[in-house]
């Protein structure tokens, strides 16, 4: 199933910027509500959490997932009575979703709207430029920017951004794992690199070069960059692909975050007969949402590789597991989405961000259970005190540690190879 914006959802977005998911609608302001000493967005019975993410536009598929996973998870938690916080009170979690269309200026506007709406904290949303757009404003306001879905290490620098933390591994971590994969087989490889001209692209390239450092079997033939259009639209990188193909490189590091751009690349490469081994970022390597959806003949490529830290919903054994069935039941439960403009999905999500959001919601729940007072300061302190926690669907060896102060919640990745349906662990190319 390809997850695309639902018309009903889009109609609920006021001014094309705001969609509200009301799982348990109540709010308060400092000095008001049920608890006089609480910060905005929390009462004795509810907590309001915001998500600004692309609900419409070129990155709407994964963007919708960053909201849907959390909505589904807390829908089940709320149905069971809510979360028992560290102060002994049981609260239901309200999720408010704001559409930023993968546009930085809209993301900042959304943050300002969250403050007006009395949101307690926000996070889980997709995108480096969009999350960067309101990072400093959130820090200045002492507003938690929690578990954002960007690999930019800025968000996990506790010294400069004490109220922020990332969820997913950094771009450098992913790039390094892919570099080590290429270097591991000892065979000669020539690599071409295409990267976005931003922190996302440079982070992957930096990590990849660290991964191949010291190896004598890997040569970088050429590096090319491109500018990312506003709003997550597909970029025309046909000239770059032609130039990279002319090098005859047998490996392409494709540090590209926009789904339509990657799909167009796959089609073009297959059509011109340049079929190197592909190294794709985790967020643009979805089997259904990117690879097969591109229409390219994937059998022409000797290998398609990515990194991961969680099982994916399309995996054969996912639906047969207890946790997997719980997830699929929740993500398609209309009661959790009813009347909100965020309608339940049907079938199995194509994008891994639905699972990542579910895991992020579980980490938030861990923090809520450790909060000793209804304040943002208590929340961020609790959020950065979690270690040894293993969320649902984590790959072997992956656990959560938010205590180091200089890394995201997930710090490990596993190199994987596409097998025609999903991904399996890979130790070398071939």
Distance between the termini: 29 Å
Structural class: alpha/beta
Q: Kindly give the count of domains.
A: 2
Low-confidence sequence ranges? 1-35
Give the total of beta strands: 16
Describe this protein's structure.
The chain is α/β, with parallel strands linked by helices. The protein has 2 domains: 243 residues, Response regulator (Rossmann fold, 3-Layer(aba) Sandwich), CATH 3.40.50; 149 residues, Response regulator (Rossmann fold), CATH 3.40.50. 34% of the residues lie in helices and 18% in strands. The strands form 3 sheets. Strands 1, 2, 3, 4, 5, 6 and 7 form a 7-stranded mixed β-sheet that branches. A 7-stranded mixed β-sheet has the order 9-8-10-11-12-15-16, sandwiched between helices. The two termini are 29 Å apart. The relative contact order is 0.16. The N terminus is likely disordered.
How are the elements arranged and paired?
Layout: H1 7-11, E1 18-20, E2 46-53, H2 60-79, E3 83-84, E4 90-99, H3 104-117, E5 121-123, H4 128-133, H5 135-141, E6 145-148, E7 164-166, H6 171-184, E8 189-196, H7 199-212, E9 218-226, H8 238-245, E10 251-255, H9 259-272, E11 277-279, H10 287-291, E12 304-308, H11 322-331, H12 334-337, H13 353-370, H14 376-383, E13 387-389, E14 400-401, E15 414-418, E16 423-425
Parallel strand pairs: 2-4, 2-5, 5-6, 6-7, 8-9, 8-10, 10-11, 11-12
Antiparallel strand pairs: 1-4, 3-4, 12-15, 13-14, 15-16
